[in-house]
Input
Amino acid sequence: MFESDEYPETVIEILRVLYFSGKLQTTADLRTALNRRGVDVETRTIRYHLTNLEKNGFVRRYGNRGVMLSPEGVEEAKMLLVFDRVGGLAMETERLSLDCDYDARTGKGSIMVNTLLVDRGKTGEALEMLSQASGSGVILSSRLGMLHAGERMWNCEVPEGKNALIGVSGRNYDIMLQQARIPTETSATFLYRVEDGRPRGIADIISHSGTTLSPGELLIRGKYTSVSGVVAAGSGLVTAAIKTFPAVFYDEVKSILESLDESLFSGLVEVRAQIPQSYRMSYKDRNRGYMLVYGGANFFAPLVEQGLAEQLSISHSIYPSERMLPVKEIAAALCD
Output
């Protein structure tokens, strides 16, 4: 790998465009994008840099359709652009949010999703475990999508011998309210204690500032959760989040939440017009309402906790909601 000062400015900007677009880009597309950023270069210069990036294994060509980052290129770009990505919400998540077009009235459209890579030979076992978790009461949605080796979604290509499981992200609550022009933000993610199937209280908390990784992803991959315990005996630690909005929009928020398809969005614990004193992170929260919702990745947490899978990515891409089926249907189809 290389340090950023070893790259010409044009190369860094090319990597920036390829990373944050997550899509095929032709030379003309790249030139237009670079011009928007104040980098005026000729097409032949872009081709020259792409050739070098291809030699280093950072991009792949797809004929006349354009180029995309390779898995190695994605990792290189993430390091180069780490300070671009840092903040209350990672820039790639903000960019993906703009492409979400789910319509609650039709029940169709693309939503933000989490992904988990599972060995192909362990997929049946993973689906069985997810089927058991689907009735735990701490799951946002038990609908699932799946990609196979070689298939790609945003900057992720499924490696050989793996399947990618796709689950609903809690970030969709923010997106749908923002689409309704209701300013919404996730202020914190926390470990939420559940006892005998009922919420008990907050155990630990991570504030959403200065991070490029999802706090929920850190908690689950670090094995701080015990969703498996909730599935088996009704007690354990799960992820949840506080999402805040101006209190004056409470009625509109409540109406939107009530209109949602429960098979996709059933993670709401409570919604109030005023944040309780004990939940306020700063004086600004005095005039804000809030939602407390279970983390979408709770669905995948038992697989990580039991060592069946490790590569979890939260709010990692977008996926058509209509292609996501109840996990029990997918498990049954795999057995046929």
